[in-house]
Structure formats: C-alpha cells, structure tokens
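Protein entry
_____________
===
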Amino acid sequence: GFPEVEVWENKYQDREYIVKIDTSEFTCICPKTGLPDFAHILIEYKPNEDCIELKSFKEYIVFYRTLGVFHEHVVNRILDDLVKACTPRWMKVSGEFNVRGGIVTRVEAEYGE
C-alpha cells in the first residue's frame, strides 16, 4: 500500500498561515495506455495541530510512479491522504499534467473553509 505521510507538531497552532509544497517531479502511469504521465503538483494548506513531514511526503509521491491512475483520481487521493495525515484547517491540491494529445489537464480539489 501507500507509504504513510508523517507529520510533526505545529508550534504556531494559534496562528493561521499557509504552507505550500510544490513538486514538478510527479509521475504516474496512464491506466489506458500504460505510458508515464508527468505533472506539477501544488499542495497549499493551513496547518492546525500538525504539519506534513517532507521526506515522508517525497516517499509518498514516488509511490505513484508505478501506479495506473487517472489525473482526477490522483489529485483527490492526495487530498484525502494528506487531510487524513495532518487534519488541516484548509487544504487545496492542484495538479497540472503535461500535455497529452494537445490537451493540458488541470485538476484542483479542496478541503475545509
């Protein structure tokens, strides 16, 4: 299964602030063609009690490299897994997938507020 995304305690729980995690190295497999899909994934969130630990997040993202999954499912699965891991005040996951057949796909999913 998926590697667990670890967290660490937010020392500024009394303050609302936004954390942005940005990766242009995301890869998964197209479930229709079996070819690799490349994407830019941006996670934006307002931490509550916990923040996402980046090394475990990187291991989580790398897991997708061998997974056949649709773009829309990728973004929603990442949102679900990260919300479960850190229970943020608010979170948004955006994915911009590289051009395939002249079409760019952008998917956004949001939690909270």
User: Anything to note?
Assistant: The longest strand covers residues 19-29. The first helix runs from residue 54 to 63. The two ends are 30 Å apart (CA to CA).
